[in-house]
């Protein structure tokens, strides 16, 4: 237990058993301590009296257990390029990268959105994957591994492959993605002075999003929208405020919670009664910006917020299923300004299917109107470029070519700069490689290994593709037909493929 850490639960101590595992975060310690999912997974296993578990990160210098003691080595895999850090951590502890080159222990596994969506580009490196919500299944996996540790590696993996929601590449079959009922509120179980969000108590209000934007993996991967009951939320908020004055409400669509306004009012009343509370929210939907919500945020010290509008024209917003009108956007800005926020950042995307130059011009015109009507209010824009994601209606849509997207990026930066508006666009070249990994198949396993060996920069991706004779546009840029066999088809997620086809046709034709 690190000195700066404050446990909000009672960890089992003085465990006497013969089973130890590492739960690894592919990043530095401060980021790991602000990762709610990672910390909660650790907490659920740490609460077991017969399992020794230790957290390790990229910058961990000393470990309690030697690698020779470790039976399970689990990784959180949330971003496409996490494989680079994961490989470096395995090598740090002299563990062979490919499963077939490893002896029995430790068994190496991963969970998280990247491998739930499509684990195929990484299947040779992990003994198994957790597909979907892992809170309950992690406990089942650990139990099976502990109780059968005397068996051979193959026998243990066969037993794991029989668990619903576990994908074992050496025993391939259809896998159902696990969806957990939110019968408990997930919250930060360990606070730290050294966390990226220092001493911040994060609360998951809701999981999933009912809007179902055509491109959005986070939405489709987490359907249906599930909300924590109001009474449970209030109880957990009060628990957190016993330890810290900083709270954060988390969820892809927290404002869709049926009691979101009541939660804001509860916190606002506490502040007005003299309690010092700093509160932040992950982001807000434009049509959920109301006086009471903004008053709560400003009373709790938040000066800026983010609104995801995705596209500048109403036509394109309808195409992606983001049904927001310009009037709603202008109204949200007005409410934010009048109730004390100092600024808003608008998030959008370029290169969405059917996008035209007129849509980009509409983005600039929208920004111009907002700027003109809100003198002294800080307006900024951030954009990423469209990356086709598995299990979404746009999974069949190829990505626009890099030169064209870079032209669009330059246009937006130039035109918004003229208006005095800060504009950031993600790297078009990096987004291209993200698309390759996103729609990749198992032919990419040696490719990702070579990317790592060559240093993991942009040039490494190009060199590894040439070395392995990978036609990367086949994954990133090609439009697929509905009867194309997709690498991730063996993962069954609701709603299924037939629904995604109907949505694709509804939105794009």
Blueprint of the fold:
Layout lengths: L4 E3 L12 E6 L3 H4 L3 H11 L5 E6 L12 E7 L5 H11 L14 E5 L1 H5 L10 E3 L4 H13 L5 H9 L4 E2 L7 E2 L13 E3 L7 E5 L1 E2 L9 H5 L4 E2 L2 H12 L4 E5 L9 H13 L5 E4 L9 H9 L4 E7 L3 H6 L6 H13 L4 E8 L6 H17 L4 E8 L16 H17 L3 E4 L2 H11 L6 H9 L4 H10 L5 H4 L14 E2 L4 H12 L1
Parallel strand pairs: 2-3, 2-4, 4-5, 5-6, 8-19, 10-13, 13-14, 15-16, 16-17, 17-18
Antiparallel strand pairs: 1-9, 6-7, 11-12
Q: Could you please describe the fold and organization of this structure?
A:
β13 (246-250), α9 (260-272) and β14 form a beta-alpha-beta unit. The mean pLDDT is 92. The longest helix is centred in the last third of the chain and has 17 residues, at 357-373. The protein has helices at 29-32, 36-46, 82-92, 113-117, 135-147, 153-161, 217-221, 230-241, 260-272, 291-299, 314-319, 326-338, 357-373, 402-418, 428-438, 445-453, 458-467, 473-476, 497-508; strands at residues 5-7, 20-25, 52-57, 70-76, 107-111, 128-130, 166-167, 175-176, 190-192, 200-204, 206-207, 226-227, 246-250, 278-281, 304-310, 343-350, 378-385, 422-425, 491-492. The protein has a six-stranded mixed sheet with strand order 3-2-4-5-6-7. Strands 15-16-17-18 form a four-stranded parallel sheet, with helices on one face. Helices cover 38% and strands 17% of the residues. With 509 residues, it is of the alpha/beta class. α2 packs across α5. The protein contains 19 helices and 19 strands. The chain folds into two domains: 5-176, Rossmann fold; 190-427, TIM Barrel (Alpha-Beta Barrel).
């Amino acid at each position: 237990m690190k000195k700066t850490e404050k446990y909000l639960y009672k960890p089992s101590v003085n465990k006497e058993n013969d089973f130890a595992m590492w739960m690894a975060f592919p990043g530095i310690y401060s980021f790991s301590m602000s990762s709610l999912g990672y910390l909660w997974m650790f907490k659920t296993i740490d609460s077991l009296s017969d399992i020794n578990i230790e957290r390790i990160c990229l910058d961990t210098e000393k470990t309690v257990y030697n690698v020779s003691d470790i039976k399970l080595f689990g990784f959180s895999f949330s971003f496409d390029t996490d494989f680079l850090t994961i490989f470096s951590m395995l090598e740090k502890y002299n563990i062979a990268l490919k499963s077939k080159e490893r002896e029995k222990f430790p068994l190496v596994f991963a969970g998280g959105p990247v491998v739930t969506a499509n684990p195929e580009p990484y299947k040779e490196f992990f003994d198994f994957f957790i597909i979907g919500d892992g809170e309950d299944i992690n406990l089942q996996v650990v139990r099976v591994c502990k109780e059968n540790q005397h068996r051979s590696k193959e026998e243990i993996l066969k037993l794991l492959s029989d668990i619903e929601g576990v994908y074992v590449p050496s025993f391939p079959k259809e896998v159902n993605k696990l969806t957990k009922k939110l019968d408990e509120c997930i919250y930060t179980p360990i606070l730290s002075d050294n966390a990226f969000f220092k001493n911040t108590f994060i609360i998951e209000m809701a999981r999933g999003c009912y809007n179902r934007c055509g491109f959005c993996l986070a939405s489709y991967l987490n359907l249906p929208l599930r909300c924590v009951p109001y009474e449970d939320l209030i109880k957990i908020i009060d628990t957190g405020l016993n330890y810290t004055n900083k709270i954060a409400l988390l969820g892809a669509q927290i404002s869709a919670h049926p009691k979101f306004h009541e939660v804001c009012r509860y916190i606002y009343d506490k502040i007005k009664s003299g309690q010092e509370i700093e509160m932040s929210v992950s982001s807000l939907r434009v049509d959920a910006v109301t006086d009471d919500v903004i008053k709560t945020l400003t009373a709790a010290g938040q000066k800026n917020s983010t609104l995801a509008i995705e596209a500048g024209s109403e036509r394109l917003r309808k195409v992606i299923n983001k049904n927001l009108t310009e009037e709603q956007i202008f109204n949200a800005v007005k409410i934010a300004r009048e109730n004390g926020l100092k600024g808003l950042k608008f998030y959008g995307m370029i290169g969405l299917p059917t996008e035209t130059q007129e849509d980009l011009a509409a983005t600039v015109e929208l920004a111009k109107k907002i700027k003109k009507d809100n003198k002294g209010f800080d307006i900024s824009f951030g954009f990423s470029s469209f990356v086709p994601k598995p299990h979404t209606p746009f999974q069949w849509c190829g990505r626009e070519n890099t030169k064209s997207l870079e032209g669009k990026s330059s246009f937006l930066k130039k035109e918004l700069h003229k208006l005095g508006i800060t504009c950031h666009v993600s790297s078009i070249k990096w987004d291209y490689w993200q698309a390759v990994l996103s729609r990749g198949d198992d032919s990419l396993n040696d490719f990702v290994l070579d990317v790592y060996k060559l240093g993991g920069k942009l040039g490494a991706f190009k060199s590894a593709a040439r070395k392995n004779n990978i036609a990367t546009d086949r994954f990133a840029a090609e439009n697929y037909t509905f009867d194309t066999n997709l690498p991730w088809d063996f993962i069954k997620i609701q709603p299924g493929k037939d629904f995604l086809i109907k949505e694709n046709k509804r939105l794009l034709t």
